[in-house]
Amino acid sequence: MVRSVDESEDREPALVQAKALVKRFGEFEAVRGIDVEVRRGEAFGFLGPNGAGKSSTMRMIACVSPRTDGELRVLGLDPEVAGPRIRARLGVVPQQDNLDVELTVRENLLIYGRYFGLSRAAARRQAAELLEFAQLSDRADDKVDSLSGGMKRRLTIARSLVNDPELLLLDEPTTGLDPQARHLLWDRLFRLKAQGTTLIVTTHYMDEAEQLCDRLVVMDHGRIAAEGSPADLIRRYSTREVVELRFAPGEQVAAAQQVEGLAERVEVLPDRVLLYSDTGEDTLERAHARGVRPLSSLVRRSSLEDVFLRLTGRTLVD
Predict the structure, then answer these.
(1) What's the chief localization of this chain (predicted)?
(2) 211 versus 143: which is more confidently predicted?
């Protein structure tokens, strides 16, 4: 459970504070009484599989979906009575790009700026700065339809910054992007955080959460399974290292029996056996000494994927 602000009265109030937050759709309870606190200037993440309740939570924070029960404050205000005031201070990057593909890159930013009440001159200045930030200045007069997926995603983020938001909500920001585009987008988000923008990110990519988030919650079936920094979660729920032993199909169960007792925990997956240990190389040597002969072996550091396996017994991507 995330700490309440009451536990630290001298700390600045949280930008987002939820207590026993619930969202139901008919009989289905998508969010089941979660507590969340997001502090100013941090990158906070919701990590979990599809259907975990991440997007439903984000829509409540974005003031576009009313809560069913519980308490929620965004920027110190109640979304049910101050939705327009809150939305004016937010930036929102939805799961799917909703750009106007018939307009140019620059026109998408100018029109959005006017929507937030910027003068034409101010909108032009803001558009020029955001085009440079998103590395799209050389495509400013191109139609959006001609952009790559990564460029469209960067433009969507640039558009969300037109109103200089205090809080930026990013729902699955890099889904569908190739590795190069993902890393470029991460770089843009790191820069925003360095400039003081508070980020809330939902993702089912474990490496993304580990790269971007100062703190995160792991959600599953509408509940929070764990909370902390990526390093804290790995320290609490996994070991320092993991030994991966890969086998031909059908051989991993027998191999798991051979290595029993060599590690703190043994995980059997369809193509491999994972041995959780603080001394990976030593564990691997002892496995070989028992006659275990995998197709390949690897000693690596623990990751958030290992944490999720420990908490839920399955991988993040359903």
Answers:
(1) membrane
(2) 143
